[in-house]
Amino acid sequence: MTSSDSHKEDKTVTHADIVEVRHADDVRLAELGYKSEFKREFSLFETVAFSFSIMGVIASVSSTLEFGLVSGGHVGMVFGWLIPSIFVMTIALSMAELASSMPTSAGLYYFSAKLAPKKYAPLASWITGWANITGQITLVCSIDFTCAQMITTAIAVTSDGATVLSNGATYGILIAILLSHGVVCSAATSILARLNIFYVLINVGTTIAAIIALLVVAGDNKVSTKDAFTLFENNTGWANNGWAFLLAFTAPMWTLTGYDSAAHIAEEVAGADRAAPIAIVSAVAATASLGWLLLIATSFCVTSISDLLASELPLPMGQVFLNVLGKRGMLAMWSLIIVVQYVTGAAQGVDASRVVFAFARDNALPGSRWWKKMNARTQTPVNAVWFVMVIAAICGLLGFSTTALTSLAGSAVIGLYTSYVVPILLRITSGRNKLTPGPFTLGRWATPIGIVAVAWVSFIVVMLLFPPGQTTTAEDMNYAIVIISAVFIFATVSWVTSAHKWFYGPVKNVGEEEEVTKEKDLQT
Fold first, then answer.
1. How far apart are alpha carbons 181 and 408 in whole angstroms?
2. What is the DSSP letter of 269?
3. What average pLDDT does the segment 495-506 reach?
4. pLDDT > 70: what percent of the chain?
C-alpha cells in the first residue's frame, strides 16, 4: 500500500468516525425523546468558542465597570469580581454534569422534569423554562443596549463631547442592532459554527491587547499596588459599606451568564455529551480569569474614582481608555470592543432562540406552533429568532430609565440563575438516584458542590432585587422586580388556570418505531 493510499484511508476513517459520533448523538437524542432536526455542525472547539463568546469578557467588563466603581472603588473592581467568580464555578460544574447526562436543546427545563418527583415534574419544568426564557431575552436586550451605549460613547469622544445622543437615539441604535442580529441569528448552523472561531479570536485578542495597553501606556501614572487592591470607596447611597460592596457582585454575575448555551446547542454539536460540559466549565474559567486580570489592570490605571464617575461618557470604561490611551488610541480600542459586544449579542441571540424553540416544541409558549417551526432552507428556528428580537426591543424601553442596565442585568441574572439552580437543587434532593451519569460526572462531589451552588444563587437573587441606593424614585428604581414579577404572575396564572391541565413537561416527538430503527442501525 502506498503512502498516498494510506493517507486516503486515514481520511476515510476520520470521516467515518465523525459520522459514527453524529449518529450516536442522534440515537442518544432519540432516547431522550426527540428526533434530530438540526445539522450537527459544531465541533468541540466551536462549542467552547460559542459559550466563551456569549460572555464577551472585554465588552462585558467595559459595560459593567460602573458597578465596581460605585460599590467599593478599587476593592469593588478587584474583589467584587473574584468572589462571585469562585461561587459561579460551582454552578458551572453542576450544570456541566447535567448537560453531559442529557444533551438536548431543551436543556435546563428538561433536566428539571427528569429529576423532579413524577407528580411535580411538569411544574418544575414550567418554572425552569419560563425563568430561563426571561433571562435569555433580557440578556439579549442588555447586551445590545450596552452595545448601543458603546456606540454613543464613541460618537461623544469623536466629537470631543459636542454630540451627546439622547435616550431616544440610543434606543434607535438598539433597534438597529437587534434587527441586524435577527438576520445573523437566522443563518444556517454551519455559518454560525464558523463565525464562532472569529468571535473567540477577536474576543481574546482584544482583551489581552487592552490589558497590555493599559499597563504599558499608563507608565508611572498608576496607583500603588496597595491602593489598587485595598482602597475602598462607597458611592452607592447605602450607608452600610458591607452591603454597598456586595452590590459590586452584579458585574460578574451579569458577565458570567449564558454559559448554558452549550447545552442549548447540544443538538447541533458532534459528541455533545463531552463537548457541552467541557465548553461550560472552560468558558466560565477563562472568562472569570481574563476578566479579573483586566480589572486588576484597570484598577492600577484609575487614579481618581470620583473623577471617573463624574465623566459625561455613558460608560466609565470609555473614559479610562481615553485617559490612558488618548483620543485615537481609545477609539481604536473601543472600536474592537464594540465588535466584541456585537458578536456577543449575536451569540446570545442564537442561544435564546434555541431556548424558545425547545420550549415551543413542548407546546409551552403562546403561539408555540409558530415558534417551533424550522426554516426549510437554513434548518434553523427563524421564527423563534424574531420572537426573541421583538420581545428584547420591548424590554429595551427601559433604556429611558437612568438605571436601565441595573434593571436589565438584574432581570437577566435572576431569570437565568433561577433556571440554573432548580435542576441543581433537584439533582441533590429528589433526583440523586435518577441521574444517569454521562462522560463528565462529579461523583461524590455532586452534593457538596450543589449545596454551595444553591446557597449562592439564593443569596444573589434576593440581592439583585434591591435598588442602587437607600432612597429611590420612579426614574432610578430597579425595575428588575417589575420584569420578574410580570413573568412570574403570567406564568403562575397560566399554570393555575389552564397549563396544569395540558402541560406535562418535555413532549416526545420521536416515535417508538423511529427509536427502534435508530437503535438497530447503531447495532449494525
1. 19
2. B
3. 88
4. 88
Q: Would you state the cell numbers that stand for residue 211, as one nine-digit string?
A: 490589558
Instruction: Determine contact, residues 312/91, Cβ cutoff 8 Å.
Output: no
Instruction: Give the Cα separation of 397 and 425 in Å (integer).
Output: 34
Query: What cell was used for 258?
Result: 449564558
**Partners of 42 in the β-ladder:** 269
User: What is the rounded (10 degree) CA torsion for 107, 112, 118, 124?
Assistant: -120
**Distance separating alpha carbons of residues 282 and 263, to the nearest angstrom:** 14
Task: List CB contacts of 373: < 8 A, sequence separation 6 or more.
Answer: 381, 382, 383
Number of other CB atoms surrounding residue 309 within 10 Å: 15
The Cα 160–Cα 176 span in angstroms is 25
Cell readout for 453 is 451552588
Q: How far is CA 329 from CA 62, 74, 212, 323, 335, in A?
A: 16, 24, 13, 10, 10
Which tens digit of pLDDT belongs to each residue from 214-256? 999 998 899 999 999 999 999 988 889 999 999 999 999 999 9
d(CA 82, CA 138): 24
Q: Which helix (H) or strand (E) is 124 found in, with range?
A: helix 121-158
Average pLDDT, the chain: 85
pLDDT at 512 over 50: no
CA distance 35 to 106: 12
Nine-digit cell string for 340: 466584541
Enter the C-alpha cell of residue 308.
471617573
Nearest to 38 by CA among 22, 50, 24: 22
- What is the pTM assigned to this prediction? 0.84
Q: What percent of the chain has pLDDT over 90?
A: 51
DSSP alpha helices (H): ranges in 3-120? 3-32, 44-55, 57-70, 74-101, 107-115
The upper half-sphere exposure of residue 324, i.e. CA atoms within 13 Å in the direction of its Cβ, equals: 31
Residue 196 · residue 50 · CB < 8 Å: yes
Closest CA to 268 of 41, 473, 78, 432: 41
Q: Label residue 237 exposed, middle or buried (CB < 10 Å: 0-12, 13-18, 19+).
A: middle
